[in-house]
Description:
The complex is a heterodimer.
Chain A: H1 2-14, H2 23-29, H3 34-58, H4 64-84, H5 88-117, H6 119-147, H7 150-155, H8 157-169, H9 186-213, H10 218-225, H11 227-242, H12 246-265, H13 273-298, H14 304-351, H15 356-372, H16 381-385, H17 394-458
Helix pairs in contact in A: 1-5, 1-6, 1-8, 2-3, 3-5, 3-14, 4-5, 4-8, 5-6, 5-14, 6-10, 6-13, 9-10, 9-12, 9-13, 9-14, 9-17, 11-13, 12-13, 12-17, 14-17
Chain B: H1 27-50, H2 76-96, H3 100-108, H4 115-135, H5 141-150, H6 156-164, H7 167-173, H8 176-186, H9 189-194, H10 201-225
Helix pairs in contact in B: 2-3, 2-4, 2-10, 4-8, 5-7, 5-10, 8-10
Amino acid sequence: MAPLLAVTVALVLADSAVVTLALPDIVLHLDASVTEVAWVLISFNLVLGLAAVPTAMSFARAQPRVLTALGIALFAGASAWCAAAGSIEVLITARCLQALGGAWAVVGCLELLVAERGERRGVATWVTAGVVGTAAGPFAGGLLTEAFSWQAIFVVQVPFAVLAVPAALRARAVPPAEPDRHRPALLPNITLALMSAALTAALFLLVLLLVEGWRHSPGQAALTVSVVPVAALAARPLVRLLRTPPDVEIAVGCFLVAGGLAGLALPPSADLAWTIAPQALVGLGLGLTVDQLTSQAMHLRLPRVRHAAWTIGARHLGVVVGLVVLTPVFTADLMDAQEPAEVAITSLVLDAPLPPQDKIAIAKALGDALVGERGRVPDLGPAFDSLDLAPAQQPAADRLEVQLDEQLERAATHAFRDSFLIGGGLALLALLVVVLTSVAGAATGAVSGAASTRRRVAS
Amino acid sequence: MTGVPLGPPPSGPPPTVRPAGGRPAGVMRVLGLPVLALVLVAGVLGVQLDKGGGEFEPLRPADACVERGVTSQAEGIEGLTERLVLLGVDGAACRLGVSREALTLELAQPGERSDAQVDALREGLEDAVRRMKRDGTLPPASDLADEALEDADLNRFLKAAIRALPDKVVDGALKTDDVLIRAIDDLDLRELLGNLDDQDDLNRQVEKAVTDAVKDSLLDRLRNLI
Lengths: 459, 226
């Protein structure tokens, strides 16, 4: 029963990013713009972020088993509706419902997991499931898109949920909710929100760069971004080995994410290998920060479910902030990248070692390809395939195609640079919050220490 | 994974999740992970920058005012025309203060051409002829004569007569640069640029003008000789 509930938590939280690798397919299938399709992510995270705390409050007045089961059922139904969506508007509406059901499910699962496994293990399972789901979402989505279609991402959630509903209903009864005794942990939640925004930059932008900019398939991109969850899992043993204090761990995590994003902003080529090390830094940072911050924000605060909901709200509103800040930046940069890309392509075609008539044919085919792509990074392959060149000219044409593809990759990579660096800036901002919190905590400790010393001397 | 121990509600400073067992943190515990992170980030960024990470950007257009060599895979009038157009667009772009690529893309767009564009292109083409003459890359007129006559709508006896002329006579009678300058002068560049479907139409139309100019010059000279 507990594993099913953990899987539900992972599924709901994976959904915040699961469609990232499918976005290019959704753009084509639903005839949407990049900005519209960003709302497929924004709507889910916004509703989940805003609904989490009110949902948790509703748990004080109802039996968590019933609310959780209802939430899972709504999540599953909305997932099926997402798969059947015929327009971007319907998909976004279904995503909002999915997030609403997800909020009940994920908050309720915490209570049920604690009832099932005890406080310590229950919370730990819930936090781990969330981190794994968040990190593995794009990977799973990419593989499903590659193997089947973008709709498969939503379809596969339905059977899991169908099993989880009876599991939730059969869970142990949860004791009555504790009274509202503590304020939300402001600084851990702010740090969590900033880190979520930065991690959004890492996952959302990277997969778009790989699929849209570098023209890799969703499957290849999914395998590539799997470095992040693997590195995130490696973070725990490392911390245990070094026995690092929690605040230091979080600060280092923020720094690693910032460094990883800077690395993603500066690849020396469009070779996938150059994304591995920066992603490993991001993954390590993710592993060091998110569960630690979540635990800090919930630590000893009652009622538990409400403070867990604050962390959900902080994380997903952070994702929204990341998407809202970064989407206009990189879409504008992609538009701006068209001109240098066109200039580079023109230069290469003019100087290509091909007879003038072949250059004319290539220029026309490229022009048609650019118009056909409606502002997206074009795939020049079909333009070259449509040419009827003499066999003697084919090698030069092939070389030209490679050179032109490289120019497009360069332009796309350059267009994502600012957004990655902004993401790195968000991680550094999170680091600043951690450092200031630690300094303030140390000062408070010193003052109370001095006061108690004075009291002892006086007595 | 860090667990959350049960206990009384918090008060005072934010709690730490993993108590250190009551012992003060050692230097290694505090500095180990930060030092490792610094090394990792510096290593990754250092290698990437060393391999050109900051310079992975699209090709930037060369300064159109800096002379560069141009080649063509085509021969005869087609090859000559291509080189002339490439050098001519360079010269025009230099005069207009834009890149060769920007001017090419601009000319590929439909619409009216400005006087400045037309004048710059004509002067650019004429500069190209002079430069090729200076470089010694202009072919002798005799190299162009056969090709110019091939599709010319001329009496076959006339064609045969011209073809019978020794190359020396043709080259002595016709200076390639004069023929080309005449062709460029005679070109209605405004109309030509206004009707361009794409920038490469320029090649085709200049090629036709060069062919006609060679043919007409040969006929003029032949009439004089006769």
